[in-house]
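At this stage, I wrote out one protein, both as residues and as discrete backbone shape codes, and that material follows here.
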Amino acid sequence: MISYEPLWRTMKDRGVTTYTLIYKMGFSAYTITNLKRNKSITMNTLEKLCKALQCAPNEVIEFIEDKE
């Protein structure tokens, strides 16, 4: 399962809000909604997030093993 929990921590640590991502960094509201719902994003979006937040991919996304 994909989790963007590291993204929200990274954003909090850097003082970046979803408003900033949308209106100052050019991310679409649709992308932010997908992130909030733990939906998949493209590698291009991951790269843009890493550049915008000046962080590594593991500070944006993590994979959690399904409990079955």
Notes: The chain has a mean pLDDT of 94. The CA atoms of residues 4 and 61 lie 5 Å apart. The longest strand covers residues 2-3. The chain is about 50% helix and 5% strand.
